Amino acid sequence: MAKPIAGPEIERLIQLLAKLPGLGPRSARRAALYLVKKREPILRPLAAAMADALDKVGECSVCGNIDTSDPCTICQDPARDQSVVVVVEDVSDLWALERAKALNAAYHVLGGVLSPLEGVGPEDLTIRQLVERVSKGRVKELVIAVNATVEGQTTAHYLMDQIDGMDVKATRLAHGVPVGGELDYLDEGTLSAAMRARTAL
Amino acid sequence: MAKPIAGPEIERLIQLLAKLPGLGPRSARRAALYLVKKREPILRPLAAAMADALDKVGECSVCGNIDTSDPCTICQDPARDQSVVVVVEDVSDLWALERAKALNAAYHVLGGVLSPLEGVGPEDLTIRQLVERVSKGRVKELVIAVNATVEGQTTAHYLMDQIDGMDVKATRLAHGVPVGGELDYLDEGTLSAAMRARTAL
C-alpha cells in the first residue's frame, strides 16, 4: 500500500495483531476494526488485560510454567504430588494435560526439543535445571511427556542418559488409539502400538 | 474447567482474545501463550498500540470512517474529489476500496444495511446524515457501493428515494466476472450481468 488507509495508530495495531498465531494480515485487519468499533466492551478491557499480564505474568523459576506467582500455583500446590514431575516441551502441553486433568502432579517445561538442524542444543532447554531438581532427591518419578516426534524422542533419550544412575523412575505416555478416533485414519505405528498394548475387555 | 490453569490474569486475557473475529477459544489460548512468551517484542508494543488506539481513534463525524483525526484524513484530503461520495456499508468496505485504489473520492459509511428482520431501520444507519450532506449541494455524485445482497439492494433503493429530486447523480458498481475468476464457479446472475454488459475486445 502506498499510503496507510487509516491513521498510523491503526496500521500499527493491525501489524502487531497480524503477528499473533492464527491471525493473518486479513483477519488482523478485521480484528483491529472490531476492536476500534467495540471500544468500551472489548478494546478497553483487552488493553487493560494486556497491561496486567505485562505487569504480573512471568516464568516459574522452578518448572518454567507461566503464571502470576513464582513459584507458580502448581509448584506451590500442597494437594499435588510434587514427587511426580511431568516433563513437557512447552507450556501449551502443560495446559493441555491440565485441561485433561491427566495427573495431579508437578511439571517441568523444557522449552522445546533438541534439534541439531535448528541449532537447539541441551543448553537451550531447561534440562540442566531438571537434572538439578531430580538430584535433590525429592522427585520419585519423571513422566516424559514430550511429543511423539523424532526430536521429542531424541530429547527423551538424552534426558534418560542425564538421569542415569539417579534414584528416579522414568515413564512415558502410553501409545494407542485416540478416544473417539477411527482406525482407518490412524498410521501403522499407532495401530501396531495399540495392538501390542491391547488390554482385556 | 474446574479451576483455571494459569492465573486469573491469563484466563481473562484468553477470554477477551477469544472474542476477536477469527480467534476461537483454542487459538485464543495459543495467542495468549505467545503473547506472554514474547513479552518484549510483541506483548508490550501491542498493549501500547491498544492504549494508543483507545486514546486517539474515533469515528469521523462527517463520513463515519475510523481515524485518529476528526474529520478523518480522507475527508480533509484536498487531493480527493470531495464532490464524489462513495457510500459503503462498513468501514471494512471503505478500507477494501482504498486498498484497491478504486476511486480518489470521499466516502460515507452507513454503518450497516436496512434489515427489518434484524430490526435495523433507517434511523439506525447514517442515512439522515448522508441526505444532509447531499442537500448542502457540494456532492455531485453518489456511488452506492453497498454489497450485492438483498439487504444491500433494499438499502440502495431506500437511499435513492431519499435523494429523489436532489441535484446529485447516483451510480453503482458494475456487475461482472471478478478478475481472475473462473466462469464455472460463478452464479447465473453474475454471468448474465457480465454478458449483458459485455464490451468490445
From TrEMBL, chains A, B:
Zinc finger feature spans (C4-type): 60-75
Residue ranges of every copy of the Toprim domain listed in the record: 83-178
Keyword annotations from UniProtKB, A to Z: DNA damage, DNA recombination, DNA repair, Metal-binding, Zinc, Zinc-finger
Highest taxon above the source species: Bacteria
Pfam families: RecR_C, RecR_HhH, RecR_ZnF, Toprim_4
InterPro entries linked: DNA_Rcmb_RecR, Rcmb_RecR, Rcmb_RecR_Znf, TOPRIM_dom, TOPRIM_RecR
Keyword Zinc: yes
SUPFAM superfamilies cross-referenced by the UniProt entry: Recombination protein RecR
Membership in a protein family: Belongs to the RecR family.
Protein function: May play a role in DNA repair. It seems to be involved in an RecBC-independent recombinational process of DNA repair. It may act with RecF and RecO.
Annotated protein name in UniProt: Recombination protein RecR
Gene designation per UniProt: recR
